[in-house]
Design brief:
This protein is α+β, with helices and mostly antiparallel strands. The chain is about 35% helix and about 15% strand. It has 14 helices and 13 strands. The protein has a 7-stranded antiparallel β-sheet, with helices on both faces. A two-stranded antiparallel ribbon has the order 4-9. A two-stranded antiparallel sheet has the order 5-6. The N terminus is likely disordered.
């Protein structure tokens, strides 16, 4: 029987959680008077709200939704700006957004569930699992990993192919590349040695999940996460009708001009283990709570997901299994960012030791574009720094790059 997530966002619980965190943070602000972003005597929740809106404007984001969880309860949830500028529709906590690479965190849960069920071995060769798989791309359809490998090698050497950089040094014709290598972004060069963030190669893991389970990848998401957690504002959805309703409410996306003007923008994407999901901050909060309560995968699996990958030569790398992992002042930060160039962006940041989570969606690239987060340091994000300074006792300043 599938586990269901208890309802956690009643108005009474929201008020209690808010009161508790206000009391706690008021005490923190008295003892850490020099921490960046905090002013003695100022309401920390109000400080955070103002800082989010200031950063939104500074980073050219028309609309944004933000939620913060503490102790598995939503203690802050708010929309900022406009989901639709032309029609003056405000962004709210119920506005659906494309979440870009935050989709990888859901894929990680699906893959680890298959591992727990002994239907998937992370050390199995991609060539073996996908030997009879059909690969469909806009350049054509290819049968079997061997054929797609040859095409990848061909395109990687083609100077006229705009995505050749994504395929560079993927030695599928010479090396034993495993599921784990794709999962940890260590599939390029000598497998398992070097971290190179690569959304295209991670996207092949949805095909792995399909081969291991015998089910379409969207169905795996719905059956194991979306339906049990009652994520009713998420795509993929339980019905086509519900999907259409969510798409009708989804934020519009914009690119910022040099003069500060916004122009509507699009970024076509197909659902995969790498990207393509649509959800709200409150639905994502349900997923976050379910992960904290080990309702999707076990505590042991989650511990592996939330641990740094160690390279062949013993070097710690900035990615675990579907999540970035780093430490600051001895405290583990588990996170992921999303970025669709000139279109939308997103961020989730968890501090397991403090039991707090930030979830942020934006309808321009401004929450991710200029911070080089793919290099593995969330402290380059001013949004992350503002969250940590208000909702934890960790002293943080934005890192320059």
């Amino acid at each position: 029987m599938q586990k269901k997530l208890p309802v956690f966002l009643s108005h009474s619980k929201f008020r209690v959680g808010l009161f508790m965190i206000l009391s706690l943070l008021s005490a923190c602000s008295q003892t850490h008077v020099n921490r960046p972003g905090l002013v003695v005597g100022q309401d920390p929740i109000q400080t955070f709200e103002h800082e989010m809106d200031r950063l939104r404007k500074d980073k050219s984001i028309p609309g944004m939704s933000v939620a913060v969880l503490q102790n598995q309860q939503v203690v802050f949830a708010q929309g900022f700006g406009y989901a639709d500028i032309e029609n003056r529709i405000p962004a709210t906590v119920d506005t659906p957004f494309n979440i870009a690479s935050l989709s990888k965190t859901f894929a990680a849960a699906i893959l680890m569930k298959l591992v727990e069920e002994e239907r998937l071995d992370l050390d199995a060769a991609m060539a073996d699992i996908l030997k009879n798989t059909h690969f469909t791309y806009y350049v054509g359809t290819f049968h079997g990993y061997g054929n797609v490998c040859r095409k990848i090698r061909e395109f990687s050497r083609d100077p006229g192919f705009e995505y050749a950089f994504l395929l560079k040094d993927y030695r599928c014709d010479k090396e034993n590349i495993t599921v784990r290598h794709h999962f940890t972004h260590t599939a390029q060069g000598k497998p398992g040695e070097t971290y190179r963030y690569n959304g295209f190669l991670f996207g092949l893991l949805s095909l792995v999940a399909e081969e291991a389970s015998g089910k379409p990848y969207p169905a795996l998401l719905v059956d194991h996460i979306i339906a049990p957690l009652e994520m009713t504002n998420t795509i993929p959805s339980t019905t086509d009708e519900r999907r259409d309703q969510i798409m009708a409410k989804r934020a519009k996306y914009y690119r910022a001009g040099f003069g500060g003007e916004f122009t509507p923008s699009k970024y076509p994407v197909t659902l995969s283990s790498s990207a393509g999901m649509v959800t709200t901050v409150l639905d994502m909060a349900k997923f976050d709570v379910a992960m904290d309560r080990n309702l999707i995968v076990s505590a042991n699996s989650k511990a592996v997901m939330f641990s740094e990958t160690i390279s062949n030569s013993g070097k710690p790398l900035p990615y675990g299994l579907g999540w970035f992992v780093q430490e600051h002042e001895g405290v583990k930060l588990v996170w992921h960012y999303g970025w669709a160039p000139k279109t939308y962006s997103s961020l989730i940041l968890k501090v397991p030791e403090k039991d707090v989570t930030l979830i942020l969606f934006a309808n321009s690239e401004g929450a991710s574009a200029n911070f080089h987060l793919g290099r593995g340091d969330v402290l380059r994000s001013p949004f992350a720094v503002a969250f940590l300074n208000v909702f934890t006792d960790i002293e943080v300043w934005q890192r320059k790059f």
